[in-house]
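User: Hi! I'm working on a homework problem where we have to compare a predicted structure to a textbook description. Could you give me the structure for the chain below?
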Amino acid sequence: MAITMISSFALALYLELLLPANQKNFYLLPILGGLFIGWKFGAIIKAPATLNGIYNGTLGGIMGMMLGVVLQNPALCDIPIESEAMIVKNMYSLAIFTACLHALISHFIRYSIKV
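Assistant: Happy to help. Predicted C-alpha cells:
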C-alpha cells in the first residue's frame, strides 16, 4: 500500500507541476497514472490486492494533483503568499521532499523484500 500511494502521489504531483495550468485536456492524466500504478503494483500479489492497489493508486493520484494545484495557486486555500518567488520556492522544496520520501519508501520496500 505504501509504495502504491507514494508512487502515484509523486507522479501526479510532478505531472501537475510540469503540465501547463490552462490545459484542461490533461486534468485526468495524473489520476489515470495513479490508477495504472496501483493496478500494476496490486497485480503483483493477488486479485484482492489489485482492488486495494487501484484504490490507493487513484487516491494518491488525486492527492498529488490537489497538492500541485495548491502549490501553483495558494489563494485556492486562502493561504497568504507574499511573492511569486515564495511560490516557486515552495514548489521546489515540496517537490524535492516528495522525491526524497519516494526514495526512502522504495528503499524500505526493497529492504523488506530482501529480508
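For your comparison, note the following. The chain has a mean pLDDT of 86. The two ends are 18 Å apart (CA to CA). Good luck with the assignment!
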